[in-house]
Design a protein that fits this description.
The chain is mostly helical. Helices cover 76% and strands 0% of the residues. The model has no long low-confidence stretch (mean pLDDT 95).
Length: 117
């Protein structure tokens, strides 16, 4: 693997934690959600980290900022999907609380990163 600076960012490492937790949670969603909610949650969580990496590789400040904004938007998407999963009784309150902590931490980190860029 490449040894790039974005891997040293706290937000990137926290995003790895989010992906891991999302994959754990979605593993137990109903089979009929394999191409629905499960797939959407997994793709959105991967999008968070992917856009951080891609943004970090951009030379233009505006391009970097745009990718970071997309990354943060993917967090909002995850939040909405978790709400749906909860309302359908697919995930527990404890799982939501754990995810919410990580999502809020990443959202704050992304907001600071965007502001600094």
């Amino acid at each position: 693997m490449l040894e790039l600076n974005h891997k040293k960012l706290d937000v990137w490492n926290k995003s790895i934690e989010l992906i891991t937790e999302i994959y754990r949670v979605t593993k137990f969603l109903p089979k009929e959600e394999i191409f629905g909610l499960s797939s959407q949650l997994r793709r959105a969580s991967v999008s968070v980290i992917s856009n951080i990496a891609e943004g970090s590789a951009r030379k233009s400040r505006l391009e970097r900022k745009r990718f970071y904004e997309i990354s943060r938007s993917s967090l909002v998407e995850i939040d909405a999907q978790i709400e749906i999963a909860h309302r359908l009784s697919y995930i527990s309150k404890e799982q939501i609380e754990k995810l919410n902590i990580v999502i809020n931490q990443i959202f704050a980190m992304m907001s600071k990163l965007i502001q600094k860029t």
